[in-house]
Each structure stands twice: as structure tokens, then as C-alpha cells.
Design a protein that fits this description.
alpha+beta; six-stranded antiparallel sheet; five-stranded mixed sheet; about 15% strand
Length: about 575
């Protein structure tokens, strides 16, 4: 905390005057005997004078001059004590007033410091600081400005909406940039100026604390976005550790994850030399962090064991309810780079990273299950569909070989039927191959991937395919998470393959429109169907029936519906909220 100006020194100590009651008591006790003694002595002396005239003048001189003089000086002596006491009381009242004012200013400064610490953002800090400056200094107006164009103003007990020329300004700099401008009804003194400087220092601390909180929130938001938007493990760890390293302004970062055997191994690392190859066992410091289960700062030799060029390193464990998931490492060539690190914030980031890694692993596992299910489905379709059709065609050709001489006309008919069956199965195989062809969404983006797929689909299936993006390519209004983009594309793929297999359509149109929610429409002019009768079926292309597609879309906050009837074509509509 910035030192506040010292309270004014007490008034210079005065010589302690005698108590008034002591003086009165002394006069009361000593003056009458003294007067009696003096009168006796004087009368004895006067009696020795010769002549009545001399005695008369002696009495007049003594009782007319000496008596009043003694009385006057006695009373004056008492009055001087009274005046000294009054002066001491005035000095004490002034000192008490100064101490009360100083205490009030100190209490106001403490309240201001508390309010600055509780302010939620930088704008609130400026408003609180301006009001506090008015309250502490007694100014009529206060204006606080900081770099970046932000400012806060406050007005005290005055009818003036803005400062006028009759007021006395005082402007002090704020450490780190900016200024605190105050206006007073009377010229401010040195004490007021010193108080304003102290307030400016406290305001600078509050502004810096608000900036740090904002940076912390931005860093946490970036980490959160990494969790939501990334499923690739190396890219995920790269983003998380990059955000953490940027927050601390350090250069080296690494992530070690436990494998299926519980061994801690390098998953991702990067320093001045570039990215490192993963798979190597964890260094001693990473194992020490894993064993401690809490953030640790490495010794210099331990830091070099993690990053060859580092002189300091920080390790953060990644823990979940099942135990250790991994260890995050940050390093820097500077000695003591992590001495003043805000460890609780980094521990929170490590907790988010733990959630991200666990989600990414679950996503990879679900993909493996999906691939396994898809392989099983393809095997069933080949066995139940293409393989049986080919076997039937082979039987027909065997029959034909025996009928070529005995019944040529019947043999020719069977050959034509077998050829038609083979051509149909060839088309079916081509449709399956087209549906299973890998599509690089990350390389081309959703719009270009959909464009390529729709155009190729029309050529492969010999039908007219039209596409409408509603200006999305030029407006840049498409903002979907990678998982949502993949879901939308799979929906396009599933809908078009249903058209190819069942609709017997001549034309299909696909539209993808923007707005707060991305809207997808796939419409064909085929034979249509009754949605109620096929809701539970699983299609042959993407492995998703109507129920599965609806559940996947609704799980992400979207809507899905199918409109169709026999002989009236089919319309598939879906909406997905943008991020």
C-alpha cells in the first residue's frame, strides 16, 4: 500500500501554566495575613512620625497607592493564569480538530482502497476512484483519465454540473500514465496536494489490478475456447500451453500425459529450438510434480532437465477424480522468472486443461467406436447386399452356360438380367465409395467442402444438383465450432445419399443460409416416403437414421425435421446456432 501523508504535527508544547485554583488558593491563604502584617508594620512606623499632618499623608500614601497596587497585581496574576489556560484549551481544540480531520481522511482513503479492490472492471475502478477523490479531498469535481481514452468523473456537494473558472484546479499525475484533476472552492494547500499524490498512487494500483484481472479473464476465455473448439490432442495442448506462456511472458512449454500403462510421457513441447517429438519419458522434475500433486518451481538444474536453455521452470499437475492425468511445464532462460507468478490462476488453467484433455480423449475414443461401428455396418451391407447380388449373378451365369446350346433365347434373357444386376451393384459400390471418401473440412472449410461434395454427387448419380449459400461466402457470417461444421456436413452427406439410394429423383437442391442460426435445406423431387414408417431405420450411407440425426442436432441446441409423402419428394431442414 502506498504510504499516506503523515498527519500534521501537534502544536508546539507550551510551558505548563500553574493551575488557576492553585493561584486562587495561594492568594486566599497568604494575602490576608500578609496584609495584616504589612498594616501593623506600617502603623508602627507611622506612629513614630511627628505631627498629625505627616501621619495623614503617610496613611493616604499607603492606603491610597500601595493597597490598590497590591490588589491590582494580585488580580492580574490570577488573570494571567486564566488567559494561559484559555490559550491551552484553544490549542487543544485546534489539535483535536486537525486529528479528527486527518482520521476522517484516513478512513476515507481506506474505504477508497476497499472499493477499488472490489470494482469488477476498469471502468468501475475509474468511477470509484473519482468519487473517492472527491470524498477524501473535499473537491467539488474530480476527473480521472488513464491511457486508452478511459476516464471517470465525479461531483461533490455543489450545484455546478462542470468546473467553472472560479474554482481552483489541482492536477497530479497517475503513476503509469494518466492524471487526476481536482477542483476546489479555495486554493488547495501543500497537505491537499500531498494527499492527492497519494490517492493517485493508490488509483494506479487499482487500475493495474483491474488490468491484471482483465488479462486473467481473457486468458481463461482463450483456454476455454481451446477446450471447446479443438479435438486434436497436439493442437489442443499447443493452444493451452501457448496461452499460459503468453500470460507469463515465458518462452518454453511442454505437456506430459499418462499413457494406458500409467507412464508419464511427453505429448507436446516447444521452445526456442522448435517443437519436440513426443513419446519420451518425463524428466525428474515432472515426476516430482506428479508425486507432489501441486504446483512446484524447479531448481536451476531441474529446469535444464526439462528445457536445455531454461534456468527456471514451473510445473503444474493435471488432476481429475481418477488421479493424475498429466503435468504441464513452463520454462524461461531468466533466473527467478516464476518468483512472483500467480499460481492459483495457473492452477485453474491446468484444471481447464485437464478437462480439455479428458474430453479430447473421450472424443478420440468415440471416433474409434464410430469407425468400428461403421466398418461393421459396411461389412453387413456388403454381405447382405452386394455380395449376395453378385453371388446371385454368378448363379445366373452358371445357368446360362448350360442353356447356351439347349435354349439360346432363354440364355440371352438371363445374361441381360445378370448384366443389369451387375451394373446396379456397380453403382451401389460407387455410391458407397463416394460416401466414404475422406473430406478435409479443416483444409477447405465447410462451404467449399459442401460445394465440392454436392457437385460431385450430381455427376456421380446422374442428376441435377443445385447449391445456394445465400451470400455466406462474401459476408463471412458463418461461425460454427469445428464439431458443428462436421455435423452439418455429415447431415448433407446423409441426406444426399438417401436421395441417391431411395428417392429416384431427377433434381436435388441444397441451401445453406446464415443468420443467428445456420439453416440447411436439402430438397428432392423424388418418390418420397412416409416418415413415420421409416423413423427407426438406419441408412446405408452415414450410419445414422432419422432419430440419430435428430438427436445429434438437438444435443447441440439445433432443430431438425423431415417433410415427405409418397409421390411428393422429400425436404430435410435443420438449424444450428452459431457460436
Amino acid at each position: 500500500m502506498t504510504d499516506l501523508p503523515a498527519p500534521p504535527p501537534p502544536a508546539q508544547a507550551l510551558p505548563a501554566p500553574a493551575q488557576l485554583s492553585d493561584r486562587v488558593r495561594l492568594v486566599r491563604n497568604t494575602l490576608p495575613p500578609l496584609i495584616l502584617l504589612v498594616v501593623v508594620v506600617v502603623e508602627v512606623l507611622i506612629a513614630q512620625l511627628r505631627g498629625p499632618r505627616a501621619e495623614l499623608w503617610a496613611h493616604l500614601l499607603f492606603y491610597g497607592l500601595v493597597g490598590p497596587a497590591v490588589t491590582f497585581f494580585s488580580v492580574e496574576w490570577i488573570a494571567e493564569g486564566t488567559r494561559a489556560r484559555e490559550r491551552a484549551e484553544r490549542e487543544l481544540r485546534l489539535l483535536y480538530g486537525e486529528l479528527s480531520a486527518s482520521h476522517g481522511r484516513l478512513r476515507a482513503v481506506q474505504e477508497l482502497m476497499r472499493d477499488l479492490a472490489e470494482a469488477p472492471d476498469l471502468g468501475a475502478v475509474l468511477e470509484v476512484a473519482a468519487r473517492g477523490a472527491v470524498r477524501v479531498t473535499g473537491a467539488t469535481h474530480a476527473t480521472l483519465t488513464v491511457p486508452g481514452g478511459l476516464s471517470g468523473t465525479a461531483r461533490g456537494d455543489t450545484l455546478l454540473a462542470t468546473p467553472s473558472a472560479d474554482l481552483h484546479p489541482l492536477k497530479v499525475p497517475v503513476p503509469g500514465g494518466g492524471a487526476l484533476a481536482l477542483h476546489f472552492e479555495t486554493p488547495p494547500g501543500p497537505d491537499t496536494e500531498a494527499l492527492a499524490l497519494a490517492l493517485a498512487a493508490e488509483v494506479a494500483n487499482g487500475v493495474e489490478a483491474a488490468r491484471q484481472r482483465t488479462l486473467d479473464l481473457m486468458t481463461l476465455h482463450s483456454v476455454d475456447q481451446s477446450i471447446r473448439a479443438e479435438r486434436n490432442m497436439r493442437r489442443l495442448l499447443s493452444r493451452i500451453t501457448r496461452n499460459m506462456a503468453a500470460r507469463l511472458n515465458v518462452s518454453a512449454r511442454a505437456a506430459y500425459l499418462t499413457d494406458q500403462d500409467g507412464v508419464l510421457r511427453l505429448e507436446y513441447a516447444e521452445d526456442e529450438r522448435g517443437e519436440a517429438v513426443g513419446g519420451s519419458p518425463a524428466p525428474a522434475f515432472a515426476l516430482r510434480v506428479a508425486e507432489a500433486g501441486k504446483p512446484l518451481i524447479a531448481q536451476e538444474d531441474e529446469a535444464r532437465g526439462v528445457f536445455p536453455e531454461a534456468r527456471s521452470a514451473l510445473g503444474l499437475p493435471m488432476l481429475n477424480e481418477d488421479g493424475l492425468l498429466g503435468v504441464l511445464m513452463l520454462g524461461d532462460p531468466r533466473e527467478g522468472a516464476f518468483a512472483e507468478t500467480r499460481v492459483p490462476l495457473l492452477a485453474l488453467m491446468a484444471g481447464q486443461a485437464t478437462l480439455a484433455v479428458r474430453n479430447a480423449r473421450a472424443y478420440l475414443y468415440s471416433e474409434e467406436l464410430a469407425i468400428s461401428d461403421e466398418r461393421a455396418r459396411i461389412a453387413r451391407e456388403i454381405h447382405d447386399g452386394v455380395a449376395q447380388s453378385l453371388a446371385f449373378a454368378a448363379l445366373k451365369l452358371d445357368v446360362v452356360s448350360r442353356q447356351l446350346r439347349s435354349d439360346p433365347d432363354r440364355a440371352e434373357t438371363e445374361v441381360r438380367a445378370a448384366g443389369s444386376l451387375l451394373r446396379e451393384q456397380i453403382r451401389e459400390v460407387r455410391r458407397s465409395i463416394f460416401a466414404l471418401r475422406p473430406i478435409d473440412l479443416e483444409r477447405y472449410g465447410l462451404l467449399e467442402t459442401v460445394r465440392r461434395y454436392v457437385l460431385d454427387f450430381g455427376e456421380q448419380n446422374n442428376l441435377r444438383a443445385t447449391l445456394d449459400f445465400g451470400g455466406l461466402e462474401d459476408s463471412g457470417e458463418l461461425h460454427l465450432a469445428p464439431g458443428d461444421e462436421a455435423m452439418v456436413f455429415r447431415l448433407v452427406q446423409e441426406s444426399l445419399n438417401n436421395v441417391a439410394k431411395h428417392a429416384r429423383a431427377r433434381e436435388v437442391s441444397v441451401s445453406l443460409l446464415g443468420g443467428p442460426r445456420v439453416r440447411l435445406r436439402v430438397q428432392d423431387d423424388g418418390v418420397g416416403f412416409d416418415p413415420e414408417s421409416v423413423t427407426g431405420r438406419v441408412s446405408s450411407a452415414g450410419g445414422l437414421g432419422l432419430i440419430q440425426m435428430r438427436e445429434r442436432i438437438e444435443a447441440r441446441g439445433g432443430r431438425y425435421r423431415v417433410q415427405s409423402a409418397p409421390g411428393q419428394g422429400t425436404l430435410v431442414e435443420a438449424e444450428v446456432p452459431q457460436t
